[in-house]
Amino acid sequence: MSTTVSTRVAIVGAGPAGLILSHLLAGAGIESIVIDQRSRDEIESTIRAGILEQGTVDLLTAIDPNTRVHTVGDRHEGIELRFEGEGHRIDFAALVDRSVWLYPQHEMLKDMLALRLGAGQDLRFGVTASRVEDAETNRPRVIATDADGGQLTIEAHFVVGADGSRSVVRPAITGDSRSGYFREYPFAWFGILCEAPASADELIYSNSANGFALISQRSPEVQRMYFQCDPEADPNAMSEAQIWEALQSRVPGTTLKEGRIFQRDVLRFRSFVASELRRGRTALVGDAAHTVPPTGAKGMNLAVADVVLLARALDALLGDGDERLIDGYAEQALKRIWKAQHFSWWMTSMLHRLPEAGEFDSRRQLGELRSVVDSEAGRTYLAEAYTGWPLD
Ligand code: PHB
Fold it and tell me: Which class in CATH covers the domain with range 184-270+354-387?
């Protein structure tokens, strides 16, 4: 079976970027089809990022004033940087009058899926895109396989790759899926979810002699914590007692509240920016365009920022035939992307212990942390970047 459908914008990927884009386009009267290879259940249950920037929350609130971000989510007005066993609060509210919200990405996805399906969005699960053809023409196409194994061709006026770091749309733009700027780190995060009360009111980012740890939360009953590990570490090789010991030894000064660990994973660290973000009538957003290490909590927020720019550019292009914004999309998006790349790399390098680090490096790192927390300018830069630069 082979089917062909037509739409204005074909969006590959029903993550935060694809769903928010379909919403913004619908608001501008531009219809779209969104496809995703995963099932709805898989999208709604995969545990991913947790921190939303101020601008992301403002946008979600504009989309739905009753968004659960404000009821289920938790507003955080600061974070703690810990080193040499001492905590230093970065007070976002006082420094930049902005906040972040702890609201798990899969909860946000539940909200957006319900909203889009309720509005009649053509949203197809279990549909696997394989490639984009004629990307540079006025009628690009997505070639996909639908849930029953039949071939689906989506003819569009524009194609958007919101399909994550293994994007199948990217080669149509960059010529080769690996073409871009890339950095790998010699460490990873061992992440756990556990049933326990919170050990702290806000996130703790800790630099310790044993390496980095992050104490985060999910809800009053469930906590998310990470500690620096070898990228090749086997998540199942450690006992629960060993995991608690590893975490505890990296946050001297706090006694962690322990509980049953019900999920564990190893997250590899990468920084990546694709060599091109657009070719003709095909563009990339979110993880398809870039990857950041999780230390700065920028991944999903950066995807939202891309989408705000792209939605405006597509409105001008498809609504008025005005090509100026789409011609400037990559340049405009890349300004923020590289700022976020820098911030994520900086937080990562300041807080982790490099395997080859010597005594000089560790002491220099402590000097760097001290020059941030002792200076209002230093704390303000961190607060501005962490809460997110305004989405113009
Ligand atoms: C999380 O809660 O999963 C989380 C929070 C902050 C980060 C990274 C991950 O920087």
Answer: alpha beta
Q: Which helix H or strand E contains 72, and what residues bound it?
A: none
Q: Which residue's CA is the closest to the ligand 1 atom numbered 6?
A: 297
Q: Range(s) for CATH 3.50.50.60 in the chain?
A: 2-50+104-179+275-347
Helix (H, G, I), strand (E, B) or coil at 253: coil
Please check whether residue 305 is in contact with residue 391, taking contact to mean a CB–CB distance below 8 angstroms. yes
Rg (CA), the chain: 21
Mean per-residue pLDDT, 330-359: 96
Name the strand (E) or helix (H) holding 356.
none
Q: How far apart are CA 227 and CA 195, in angstroms?
A: 17
pTM: 0.96
Partners of 182 in the beta sheet?
272
pLDDT at 213 over 80: yes
Which member of 23, 103, 104, 205 is catalytic?
205
* CATH class of the structural domain 2-50+104-179+275-347: alpha beta
Q: What is the pLDDT of residue 177?
A: 78
298 annotated active-site: yes
* Distance (Å) from CA 52 to ligand 1 centroid: 10
Angle at 184 between CA 178 and CA 187, to 5 degrees: 145
* Token pair in block for residue 240: 């629960």
Helix (H, G, I), strand (E, B) or coil at 105: helix
User: pLDDT category, 336, cuts 50, 70, 90?
Assistant: very high
Catalytic residue among 140, 294, 329, 352: 294
